Structures are given as C-alpha cells and as structure tokens.
Amino acid sequence: MGDIFIRHIELLGYEKRFFPSQHYVYMFLVKWNDLSEKLVYRRFTEIYEFHKALKEMFPIESGDINMEKRIIPHLPAPKWFDGQRSTQNRQGTLAEYCYALVNLPHKISRCLHVVNFFKVRPDDTNPVADSQIKKPEVFLLPNDAKKNPTDITGPIVLQTYRAIADYEKSSRSEMALKAGDMVDVVEKSESGWWFCQLKNKRGWVPAAYLEPMDGPDESEEQEPNYAGEQYIVQKSYTAMEDDELTLKEGDTIEVIHKLLDGWWVIRKNETTGYYPSMYLQKAGEENTSVKSELRNRSAPPRRSTIRNAKSIHKQSRKKISQDTYRRNSKKYIQSRRNMKENFQNKANVIIEKNEQEENKPKAQPAVPPRPSKDLILNRCTESTRRKIL
C-alpha cells in the first residue's frame, strides 16, 4: 500500500468553546485514501499559520516569484478580534480553500505538511474541558450549503497590489513597504487605510501607496456626485494644503467625490476642498467603536504628497482639478436654486389665480321674463286672473 493522502476535506461547521478561554474552532471531516473518515478541529489562526508555511515551501506555486504562476489559493489573515460573526462568515472561504487545496498537484496536496496538519490529534478525540465551564456550542452548516459551499458566503478573493514607493510605518498596527513589494489586500476601508499581508507580515497601509497589478484603480472610484451626500464632521482638522478645508467638529457638509486614498472632496456652502474621510460620518448614521477607533488615528497620506512615486499608472490617472470641482459644484447649486425659484414662482402663480377667482364677483341669476296676459288667463288661478282684468 502506498503513502497515505487526503481524498476530500469537508467543512461541517464550527464550535464555540469556553475553556481555557472562549474561542472558536472549525470542524472538518477528513476522508483519507484508505476510506477512513476522521473528524478534526482547528482554530483559524492554526489554519493561517499552516497556509503561510505551505507558501514558503512552494514559493513558485504561491506566486512569490511570479504572480502569474500562483496556484495555491488565497486565505485572508485572521482579524485582530475574531468573533462569532467573522467565524461564521469565513466558512465559505474555508470550504473553497479546502476544495482547492486537495485538488492541487500531488507534490503539494499530498506532501507531509498537508497530511500531518489534518491528522487526528489527541485533543480532537478528547478536547480539553472543564466540568465547571459551559459545554461547547456546535453550529453545523445546513445540508444544502455543504453541497454548494459558495451558498454559505462568497469566497474572499484577495487582490494583489504593488507598492509604488517606500513607506515607513508610524505605529505597530501598520506595515512598512518597499517600492515594488507585492501585497494581498485583505480589507479596503473608506478611511484610506487598507489591511494588507506580505508573506508573514500584515498590517495597515495607506491606499495611496498601492496600485493594482492589472491596471489603474480608477474603476473602483465613484464618479463625482455634485448633488452631494450630507455628512457630519466628527473630528476637527486644520488644512495643511491649499486645496484642503479646515472644519470643526459638528459641522455639516456635503460629500461630492469619494476617493480611494481616503481624502474626499467635500462642499461647505459653495466652497469645495479635500477632507479626511475617516473624520466624517454620514448624517443619521450611528457611531460605532470601530469608527471611533479609526478617528483616533492620523489621516493617511494623500496621493499628491508621495514623492518619487514609481508608478506605471501615474500618467494614466484621471485627475480632476479643484477648479473643475468648484465650477461644476457652483453650476449644480445654481441649477438647484433655479429649480427652487421656478417651483416657488409656479406656486405663487397658482396662489394668485386662486385669490383672483375668490375675489371675482359671483354671477347673479337671470330674472325670468314676465308671462304674457293670455298665458296667465289660461293657466293661473281665479285670484291671479282678477288682478290683470
């Protein structure tokens, strides 16, 4: 009999455990080539460390040398605080990852690293527990979801971006970059800070320092909306450049263009300029701890402040000048005023017409003609006939 290998890995669901501290583990049914089936439990952090080691073992297949030759599937980095929602939402991604993993070339899918990771461990059969603590809670996937993993939640497809210039991190949560580094973007925040991973490193990176591999990222930016969306300033900011605006906390403004680097073009009365999006909150939207945490960070760098940017897309970017923003914004405001004036004028005309109709004297009924003498003699009573005789 040959070497043992895995035929199939099926994600059954996840389990919430309370010992030694509250955490989540995924349940996998592993089917081996000897037709045996074993149930194993793995934390997502374990799976991610396994994934990183696999990429290091096969640098060509992981795309470290040439991204076009990558066949090892992507896997997003763990969140800083994994809760039940993220554990649940990640199931579709894991199911797709396991399916792709087993179907890789045999030198990868049947290597000792893969086989040993999914072998049954002692804590798989006898998980550590404490009788004084609550029993684990099990959350199984529905049967129809198991047949089609993409129905659970869409797989997370990570985009690969290139660093256009060197970036030195300013906090522990950030990640330093060198021009030309290839990073996988795990999360894109409207604040202009993107969470990325590079080999065994991960952290927040300013979006302005990144460009996609296959072309300019203009397609991801929304077109200007001169009608404007109403936002409330949550944190004051003093303009550092001529095209930026200085605002105070509590000011109400209109956002007319949302840009990927986290610096949005806003309008205050008839003045337009850039402002950090992370310091804004949509009118009527509730505040959250995540948003509060972001507002405590510094604003990301703007694209225009990056020096010696080695970007192949720099010349092809469609840049709108502040004069264009101001001109189009004033045109929209004027057209909106004209519409209001026309509407008001029409309303005034209707009111005047109604008043004129009310003040117009009402027509009096016509006086009927007096009946002839013959008609009275033929049709009226005796007393009436006597009056004309």
Topology (elements, then pairings):
Elements: E1 6-17, E2 23-32, E3 37-42, H1 44-57, H2 84-89, H3 91-102, H4 106-109, H5 112-117, H6 122-125, E4 137-140, H7 143-147, E5 159-163, E6 182-188, E7 193-198, E8 201-206, E9 210-212, E10 229-233, E11 252-257, E12 263-268, E13 271-276, E14 280-282, H8 289-295, H9 322-359, H10 373-379, H11 382-388
Antiparallel strand pairs: 1-2, 1-4, 2-3, 5-6, 5-9, 6-7, 7-8, 10-11, 10-14, 11-12, 12-13
Class inferred from helices and paired strands? alpha+beta
Cα-to-Cα separation, first versus last residue: 143 Å
The CATH superfamily of the domain at 6-140 is identified as Phox-like domain
- Can you tell me the CATH architecture of the domain at 6-140? 2-Layer Sandwich
Q: How many strands appear in the DSSP assignment?
A: 14
Helix content: 25-40%
Oligomeric composition of the shown chains: single chain
Question: What is the overall number of helices?
Answer: 11
Strand order of the largest sheet: 8-7-6-5-9
Using the coordinates above, name the CATH class of the domain at 6-140. Answer: Alpha Beta
- Detail the poorly predicted runs: 149-157
**Mean pLDDT across all residues, rounded?**
81
Strand content: 15-25%
CATH fold category name of the domain at 6-140: PX Domain
Order of helices and strands: EEEHHHHHHEHEEEEEEEEEEHHHH
From the spread of the alpha carbons, the general shape counts as elongated
